[in-house]
Specification:
Chain A is an alpha/beta fold. Chain A has 11 helices and 13 strands. In chain A, strand 8 and strand 9 form a beta hairpin. Classes of the chains: A alpha/beta, B mainly alpha.
Chain lengths: 300, 277
């Protein structure tokens, strides 16, 4: 079983003209886990992945697999499998021949071609010209290319785009399985909800910069913690909060206090003699936390 | 070294897994067979008197044509060279157009090696196109000459040396195509340049250059003229009025090689090495 290596981005910056598409990006991706690389469209995800794979040159910084740059890997396809956009093929070549060309280039046995086509569910379409493939089939073919060398590291750019619901369910299971086998899995998406069910860790970037890094659950705690508190006498409650130095705003169902500490709010109300009608933590969804991080005004 | 051989072998697979190569090879064969067969019949007819020089107003007549077989055989390269150029240019520009540079560079991250492998591969396939073109010019053309009772010179070693030089020329033309494709990655632009230059611009330049001895010497370094010099015979040099001596065959070969190297090296710098987005 191939084992994964650690992916490391170290101070990666990429400028196009004067504009920094990626700015001082540093993070690591561990084997045995699925890491979601998230951010709105145009945040710099694809550029970062292309830098990692040596297709785009970084203005500064290094991106490595176990300390080795992609171009210096002795067996690139056996080490790293990558699926980038869904249109990297000659339309008049069959799926089998498309993969065959790169199996030859990488010195892989030709038997791998049918193995990976079977693995992604395209065996029946192996002799078909790729030009006639649907978007979902192209995504699967891209994935088959990534799997060709049975690599320990998978780098997938928006692999869920264009898949039908059955395909989405399939790829979720597939990602989990790959990580369970000890591989490193880095998968990008502009929608948290798309990968929420499959990822262990998240790396979130916006405008080319890292904005959050950690386990998926950490996203919940990052959401600006608020507590809903209400009283039949709202003015008295507001006065008590102000006196206690707790910031708040007026919410739909009461006052939104800028603290996760419900006990503190209960104490403040009790000592001020204010009757409470509601007191509970406001639980922002992961998606809300994600949107807050990347700046909700961006197109998603 | 094994990586390079694998790259070459992958480049061969790229060519032979799409339809372009045999479409171009088929058109090449038919085109050259028609020209060599048709003009072979005309010239042989004039020389043997089957066709009277009174009925075809050829001016100088058959006497000005020199030995007919080499002229007919040289159609393989003097006219057919555009096919290997197109194949080479399409092989390179197709990688940009279909974004196959991404999987290519992922499988073989050393880009210079990939371009080198492509050049070697296309040079060999270009020589293969030479075989196809010669099958038409020597096979069909020579057959027509024999039918008219003209010696097809197939026992003459000089004929077979010319055949060898034609293969070399066709290989070099394919390499020029690869370089041109890297220089002009836009496929439509590359095709337009190849067709406009080979079918229109260069023939005009060669005719224009041939009127003065100074320009004729410069004209010898045009790629088509260099190719004809390498092969050693061409309908174009026959029609050269100023009669400036063409380059030696090996000089012509070096000039052609120079075009291929310059185009490829500049193409590597301007497109091949750039970010693949």
């Amino acid at each position: 079983m191939p084992t994964g290596t650690v992916i490391e981005f170290k101070n990666i910056t990429k400028r196009f003209g004067g504009v920094a598409a990626v700015n001082d990006l540093s993070f690591t991706v561990e084997p045995g886990r699925v890491t979601g690389f998230l951010g709105p469209n145009g945040a710099g995800k694809t550029t970062s992945l292309r830098i990692l794979l040596g297709l785009v040159g970084a203005s500064s910084g290094t991106a490595t697999f176990g300390g080795v740059r992609y171009r210096n890997l002795p067996h690139p396809l056996r080490t790293v499998g990558a699926a980038l956009e869904a249109a990297s093929f000659h339309p008049s070549r069959t799926a089998r021949n498309h993969l065959g060309v790169y199996a030859i280039a990488a010195g892989l046995p030709r038997t791998r071609v049918m193995e990976v086509l079977t693995q992604v569910g395209l065996a029946a379409h192996a002799a078909q010209r790729v030009g006639g493939y649907s978007l979902g089939m192209r995504q699967r073919l891209g994935l088959a290319y990534a799997l060709l060398g049975d690599p320990g590291v998978l780098v997938l750019d928006e692999p869920i785009n264009g898949l039908d619901p059955e395909g989405i369910r399939w790829i979720r299971g597939f990602l989990r399985e790959m990580a369970a086998e000890g591989r490193t899995v880095l998968v990008s998406s502009h929608l948290l909800s798309e990968v929420q069910q499959s990822v262990d860790d998240v790396v979130i970037i916006a405008r080319g910069e890292l904005v959050h890094l950690g386990p998926l659950s950490s996203l919940d705690a990052t959401a600006s913690p608020q507590t809903v508190v209400d009283s039949p006498d709202r003015d008295a409650l507001a006065a008590a909060l102000t006196a206690a130095g707790i910031a708040f705003s007026l919410g739909r169902t009461g006052l939104l206090a800028a603290t996760p500490d419900a006990a503190l709010l209960g104490h403040v109300a009790f000592t001020a003699g204010v009757e409470l009608s509601a007191l509970h933590r406001q639980r922002a969804g992961l998606e809300d936390a994600f949107l807050a991080l990347v700046g909700g005004s961006h197109s998603l | 070294m094994t990586t390079f051989l694998r790259s070459v072998s992958a480049e061969f697979a790229k060519i032979f897994t799409t339809r372009l190569w045999w479409i171009l090879a088929t058109v090449l064969f038919c085109y050259i067979a028609l020209l060599a067969g048709g003009l072979g019949a005309l010239f042989a007819g004039i020389q043997t008197g089957v066709i009277s020089t009174d009925t075809v107003n050829t001016g100088g007549g058959a006497a000005g044509l020199g030995s007919i077989p080499p002229l007919i055989y040289s159609f393989a390269s003097s006219v057919g060279y555009v096919f290997p150029v197109l194949l080479g240019a399409l092989a390179t520009t197709g990688e940009f157009r279909h974004q196959t540079l991404t999987p290519t560079f992922l499988a073989t991250p050393r880009r210079g090696m990939v371009l080198g492998a492509k050049t070697v591969t296309l040079t060999l396939i270009g020589a293969g196109f030479g075989i196809v073109a010669l099958a038409a010019s020597v096979g069909i053309g020579g057959g027509v000459l024999s039918a008219f009772g003209v010696d097809a010179l197939l026992q003459d070693p000089e004929t077979w040396l010319m055949v060898g030089r034609t293969l070399l020329a066709m290989g070099l033309w394919a390499a020029i195509g690869v370089g041109l494709g890297a220089l002009v990655p836009n496929q439509v632009a590359a095709i337009v340049i190849v067709l406009a230059f080979t079918q229109f611009v260069e023939p005009l330049l060669r005719v224009a250059a041939s009127f003065l001895e100074v320009t004729a010497k410069i004209g010898n370094f045009l790629p088509g003229a260099a190719s004809d010099a390498l092969v050693g015979a061409s309908i174009f040099t026959t029609a050269n009025p100023a009669g400036a001596a063409p380059l030696d065959w090996w000089q012509g070969g070096l000039v052609l090689l120079g075009y291929a190297v310059v185009a490829t090296v500049i193409g590597f710098a301007v497109s091949w090495q750039k970010d693949v987005t």
